[in-house]
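hiii so um. not sure if this is the right channel but i have a protein structure encoded as tokens and i wanna go backwards to a sequence. like what aa goes where. can anyone help
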């Protein structure tokens, strides 16, 4: 028997290096585009008097999220306990864990609360509320619970008009644990255009406001009304009555967001650098070294008016090539073709030529990589941000 040892370290990437010097595939962040996306959200929220609690599930990188707080920390939303733990270790001390809690996860949540992190958890059933109330020690000031409500039939949550919501509030308030209500307007991802998204945002806001109204009418405290998704956060005409807003993908954007009119492809800050490794003259395609392991299998644009395949192509400089998409993906091979099915001219893309692919879903593509290579305004390496995956 023998033991095989492998070098797991990534090759060094020097600050100031040009794209041509980078290994491929690589996950790139165009800092200028990201800064513009962040500024857009800040402008939207200016003067709104709300807490902004960005969702870190897209970036999964403390270095990236600190930029949303001008280099500091602030309240954040997470979707996994690993995110909660690692962001707490990075100094983020106000965390909403926005996935329905189960009793088996309470020990991990309580450990974070005991360490001084203000933890917020969510649930949507009275039975879960009772189980949680029975497990949280008296006097634990760093753990509070929000009732998740369903404002659009998209996924989970209690009915804002239902009795279960009031029972949840009663059970938790009796133990001093009830902090209010939250919702996620996931149905907004099926809206197209500013008018439709704004209408969905009002549906979300009104449903959450109604939940708060009913709880207060029943004599229950409801200090927090937390709404959010990138589309509704950017297009809501009114945030009246809301105390908190959440959004995540807005900082990078992606092709799904472009497909519903939230942004343009030129606004997308995230891309995957790849190299041309072959030609398929018989199919009129070229082959790149970014397959589904680099891009993900997400086909979120397939049901939209414009199907972007596994991603939209850009030149090495980031200029969008509107007529070219990744039409097929194997594990390490991406098949690039013309959108209209006409053949790709192989002379345009010799072996070794560099291209970039814009992602359908920034979260899914990011999950395939362990770092971001951040490009400055001149297109050179400004920083490398470690990112993580897992639960």
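sure thing!! here u go:
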């Amino acid at each position: 028997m023998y033991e095989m040892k492998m070098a797991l370290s990534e090759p060094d990437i020097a600050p100031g290096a040009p794209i041509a010097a980078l290994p491929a595939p690589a996950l790139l962040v165009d800092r200028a585009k990201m800064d513009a996306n962040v500024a857009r959200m800040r402008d939207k929220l200016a003067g709104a008097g709300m807490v902004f609690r960005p969702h870190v599930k897209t970036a999964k990188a403390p270095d990236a999220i600190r930029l949303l707080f001008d280099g500091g920390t602030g309240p954040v939303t997470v979707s996994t306990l690993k995110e909660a733990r690692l962001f707490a270790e990075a100094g983020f001390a106000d965390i909403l864990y926005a996935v329905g809690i189960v009793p088996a996860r309470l020990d991990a949540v309580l450990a974070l609360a005991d360490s001084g992190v203000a933890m917020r958890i969510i649930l949507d059933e009275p039975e879960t509320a009772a189980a949680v109330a029975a497990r949280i020690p008296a006097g634990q000031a760093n753990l509070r619970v929000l009732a998740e409500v369903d404002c659009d039939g998209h996924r989970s949550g209690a009915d804002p008009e239902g009795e279960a919501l009031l029972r949840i509030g009663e059970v938790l308030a009796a133990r001093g644990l009830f902090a209010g209500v939250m919702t996620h307007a996931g149905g907004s991802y099926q809206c197209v255009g500013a008018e439709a998204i704004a209408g969905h945002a009002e549906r979300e806001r009104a449903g959450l406001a109604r939940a708060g109204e009913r709880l207060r009418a029943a004599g229950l405290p409801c200090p927090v009304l937390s709404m959010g998704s990138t589309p509704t956060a950017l297009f809501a005409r009114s945030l009246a009555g809301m105390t908190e807003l959440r959004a995540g993908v807005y900082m990078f954007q992606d092709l799904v967001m472009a497909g519903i009119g939230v942004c343009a492809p030129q606004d997308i800050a995230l891309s995957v650098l790849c190299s041309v490794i072959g030609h398929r003259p018989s199919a009129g395609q070229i082959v790149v070294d970014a397959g589904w392991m680099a891009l993900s299998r997400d086909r979120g644009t397939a049901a939209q008016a414009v199907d972007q395949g596994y991603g939209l192509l850009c030149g090495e400089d980031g200029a969008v090539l509107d007529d070219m998409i990744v039409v097929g993906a194997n594990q390490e091979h991406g098949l690039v073709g013309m959108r209209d099915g006409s053949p790709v001219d192989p002379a345009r893309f010799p072996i070794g030529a560099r291209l970039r692919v814009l992602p359908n879903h920034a979260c899914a593509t990011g999950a395939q990589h362990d770092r971001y290579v951040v490009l400055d305004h001149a297109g050179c390496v400004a920083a490398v941000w470690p990112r993580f995956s897992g639960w």
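oh and Residues 1-8 have pLDDT under 50 and may be disordered.
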